[in-house]
Amino acid sequence: MKMSNSFYVEPEGIVGGLALWWCDDAHITILHSSKNIIDTKISIKGEHVWFESFVYAPYNDDKLSFWEMLARRRVDRDSKWCVIGDLNIVASQDEKLGGTLIDQTSAKWYLDFLDITNLLEIPMKGGTFTWSNKRSEEGVILEKLDRALATGEWSAFFDKAIVLVETAITLDHCPLVLCTDGLNRRSKREFKFESKWITEEECYKVVKEGWVSNTYRSNDKILDGKLKRTKSELIKWSREKFGKNRRKEEQLINWIKSLQDSPLISEEAVELMEL
Description:
With 275 residues, this protein is an alpha+beta fold. The protein folds into two domains: 5-179, Endonuclease/exonuclease/phosphatase (Deoxyribonuclease I, Chain A); 195-274, no CATH class. It has six helices and 14 strands. The protein has helices at residues 63-73, 104-117, 152-157, 202-212, 222-260, 266-274; strands at 5-9, 18-22, 26-34, 37-44, 48-56, 81-86, 96-97, 120-121, 124-125, 131-132, 142-143, 146-150, 162-165, 176-179. The chain has a six-stranded mixed β-sheet. It has a three-stranded antiparallel β-sheet with strand order 7-11-10. A three-stranded mixed β-sheet has the order 9-13-14, with no helix packed on it. Helix 1 runs parallel beside helix 2 and helix 4 (202-212) packs across helix 5. InterPro entries: Endo/exonu/phosph_ase_sf.
């Protein structure tokens, strides 16, 4: 994943555990850590500095103490502070589909926390719900448990910030992507060798033909030329060989995302889990 730095909170037995990875462009100081939080101070190339709390809130009777602990951190953070992760709280009934009614006491603790700290939710683009119980029959439950919060100072500094709710395929939680500069940045897709290619005998022929073909006369460009030609031949062959499967996969993912991003009724929630 090209992340050269890491910090871990080890699990207790087989339960819990947190991991934080970051690249060299970011300088991150770990201020505090526990089974529920990795609290940090972040500097990007020495220009942008803010506090960031990566959280995995408890889902049991420790909820109130967690919100009180997090609220105390606000005292030292009158400026830019962001909180992101699995907050394990449903704040209102429209953030849940299926199952029992929400826990009003837990919701009040969370709303009181927002009132005390003056944190605001960063706008989210994508589905309403971020977690499912992975049931594909009656009894499916969808909830919004994951979100990102920020102070007014942080939001004013990153005024284009948005949280993308990505599609959940095998996970019970949807991945969140916090884009501090909005959706303006585009990156070139990298070439990746697909492991499924080597299950096809044709792959060896494609690699051989791409490797032996060389139009470069300069010795220092021969290797580079072979790699580029082989990559090009593999991409062309893959599109012809696996194009139909990929299109079917993309159609299914788009179908899942269209359901995930729309207001759901119980029947559609079951269909989403089946897909």
